[in-house]
Amino acid sequence: MSAFKNEAAWIMVEKAKEMGVKQGPAPDPAADEVVIKVAYAAINPSDWRIQDDPFLKLPYPFVLGNDVSGTVVQIGSAVTKFKIGQRVIGHNDALVSLNVTHAGFQTYSTVRERVVSAVPDSLPLASAVVLPLAVDTAATGLYYDLKLPLPSLNPISTGKTILIWGGASSCGSCAIQLAVASGWRVITTASETNFDYVKSLGASEAYDYRSPDVVDQLKAALRERDLVFDCVSMPGAQSACAEILTSIGGTLLPTVLKAEKDLPGNVEVRPVFGLAPAFSAIERASLSNAWAVGDASDVATALWHDFMPKALESGKFQAKPDPHVLKGGLTRVQEGIDMVRKGVSAKKVVIEIAGEV
C-alpha cells in the first residue's frame, strides 16, 4: 500500500478533448526508479497530437505528460544518484512503457533514475521543467543519430557547423545549447523577433525562416560535412532542410516528425525517438512502437548526471524557453494542451501542481 494519495488527470477514451481529475495510480517504484512529488508538469505538442490523431496505441483510460519537476519522496533499492528531499526534473516514459505511474500529469510521478537530473537551488522548478523531453529529443538527434561528441562544460571546437531548423522551439532551444557544448558552431532559423533569443543560447547566426530565399542563404552558409537537424517539422521544414542537406552532400536528416512526401531520394529522414535515453540498448531494440534509433551507445548518464546538473548551476545551460505557468493544478491540464495546440512562440506551457515548496 502506497503512503501517497495520488491524483491524476485522466484522458478517458481515445481522442477525448477533456481530462477527468480523479484518483491516480499508487506509486510503486522499481529498483532503478524514483518517485517525485510533482511541483510542475509541462505541456508538449505530443499531448495534443495524441488527442487529435493518436500515433501510439494507448490503453485507455490513460495519463499523459512527459516532463515533471519536483521533490524526490521515494527511491528504489538500486538508486544511488538521488536522495529523498532533493529537487529534480525527470523525463516520463509512460507513452512507451504504458505504465501510468510513469506519466507526468499527476501529483506523484515515477521516473527512471537514468533520466532524472538534480536541479540547483538557484533555478526555479517552474523553469527547470521545460527541459526533459526537449533535451532528450535534441540529444537523440545530435548524439545517437548525428554522432556529435558528448556535451562538455569546456568544449573543444570541431570547426564544423550545424543548422538547427526551428531554434526558438523547445527542442531547438536545447539543440542549440547542446551542439555548442559539443564544440559545434550553430546557425539556426527563427522569426526575426526571436533572433536575439536564439543568439543568447549560443547560435552564431539566425535566419528568418519566412524569407523567400532562406534556403539559398543557408546553402551559402554551410559547407561539406556540416549537418542539419529539423527541430520543428512544420509544413515545408523537412523539404527545405533536405534541399539544403543535399546541396552540401549530406544524407541524414533527423526530424521530430515522420517524413514528408517527395523529398530527395538520397536523404534519409530519421524521426528522433525522444525517449531513447530512458531505455537501455536492449530495451530500445525490443520496443515495437519506437522510432528508429541510431548508435546504441548510452548517453543518459553523461547527459543527465554528469553534464546537466553542473551546466545548470554554472549557467552554461539555460532552462529555455521560459515557462508560461498556469496555476490551479490538474484541472488546467486540458487548457494548457489547448494553448499549445493553437501555438506558442519561445515559451513552454507549464501546469503548477504542488508548486515550489
TrEMBL record:
Family, similarity comment: Belongs to the zinc-containing alcohol dehydrogenase family.
A single MF term (Gene Ontology): oxidoreductase activity, acting on NAD(P)H
Pfam families (alphabetical): ADH_N (PF08240), ADH_zinc_N (PF00107)
Naturally occurring in which organism (per UniProt): Cyphellophora attinorum
Protein name: Zinc-binding alcohol dehydrogenase domain-containing protein cipB
SUPFAM superfamilies given in the database record: GroES-like, NAD(P)-binding Rossmann-fold domains
InterPro entries linked: ADH-like_C (IPR013149), ADH-like_N (IPR013154), ER (IPR020843), GroES-like_sf (IPR011032), NAD(P)-bd_dom_sf (IPR036291), Trans-enoyl_RdTase-like (IPR047122)
Domain of life the protein comes from: Eukaryota
Alphabetic keyword roster: Oxidoreductase
Domain Enoyl reductase (ER): 20-351
